[in-house]
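Data availability (excerpt). The following record was deposited with the supplementary files.
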Amino acid sequence: MFERFMAGDIVLPQKKYSAVSTFSSAGIGDYGYRLAGFSFKVHAEMVPERLAICKLNHPRTLTIEGDLRKSWHEVVDGYRDRVGRKVPDLLAGMSPCQGMSPSTLSERQGRTKWISKDSRNTLPFVLVKIVRELRPLSIVVENVPGIVTTRVREPDTGEVGTVASLLAKKLDAYVCYPITLQFADYGVPQRRQRTLLTFIRKDQRCIAALRKAQTIPYPGKTHDRSARFGRLSWVPARDFLGPPRFRPLTSYSPGRARDLDDPLHYVPVYESRHFELIRGIPPFSGRSAYQNDVCPSCGVHNVPEDIATCDSCESPLINRPIVMEPNGPRLIIGHETSYKRMPANLPVGTVTTANGHLGSDAKIHPWENRLLSPRECACAQTIPMSFRFGERQNGSHTRVLRQTIGEAIPPWFTFLHGLVLRNLLGSGNAVKHLLSAQDYDVENLHVSSVEEREVIRRRSRDRFSSLTGRSPAPIAAS
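Predicted structure:
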């Protein structure tokens, strides 16, 4: 089924469920819901280039461009003009994550009284206005795990709390099911951790069925890092990135940096200094260029780390991340995962919006001398080959392309989640095969401290182990 999905060989169900999407970006996550049978009537997005890609793949949708804080009423009116008074079955709200991303989260760990002043972090509350008008049967909000610990002041009432807890409180006509999932547990060939809040309106009969079965509205996990619990192993980069799925490329020359049969399978060509930096990292090593210990000028081995000039010949170590200054070369300040090959025995690391930057978090191919191509990033995000990105790329299109791919929720998961929501909203049955309500990834919205949240999640994992007699796979860094 996964390979059929990736090939775009999914037959759309005849019965369609109506949907509205806000913060749509390029409509990538919505594509999975569409293949599961949700027909999107309205897409709202602020960036026109992303909205254009969305329109290519959701041709019958009404697209609304602009800041949702000002255009939310157009979403409501646009839906009613198309559908009438029938309520939507699904409202998808994948709001921007930059203000709650791990890079900013590290600045406030432990500061439980700290209140974010980043206006992007209050964008999810715009959904409340749309919900009160349209009263959808279900709502899905997706973001980074920081949504459950980032404290904000609610714009209308001034109430202070975490984004997730305030949103759940304001949507009091719904039951909220919060969870932080590792998408590799669903066969996605990428380590990507995201928090989802699925809301189901309290008058829906499936809520009682879920409660009785002690399950929640998410698909059951199919994979595990160590193939425990009767699940399959995570999909490692060694298997996923190899031929015949992708042709080999290199950043050494233009002729070998592009696959002429696939307009999205291409990589940047680097000047010799940057290429030597990549080539010096042994294939399949998972090491970084900071650990390149052979001087490219004199060939001496075991050059000490943390230096930018060879201590034997005094030449710049151009196979390390250095910058030339008036006083000589110095190492670029980076993290442990900067300028690093991704490990081959694990799924691809999180595809971020910076997936085209050499110094970003472990973005170098496990064994080839290059970054991942946009096509490889798209496939790691489980974006089907049937998804269209528009005209042949140029510099501007490549930037938008890589950013939109890095922002998306994997469509394979939204496809599976869409099938679950269709079943729940349609019949309310077959709930026993869903994710357990005692799963260790279920979130507690009453906790705002990063440290306390991690303690509770660890206890949940220990409790899971005691119930099953088996130890779950370690929580993977995203």
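Summary of structural features: Residues 450-468 form the longest helix (19 residues).
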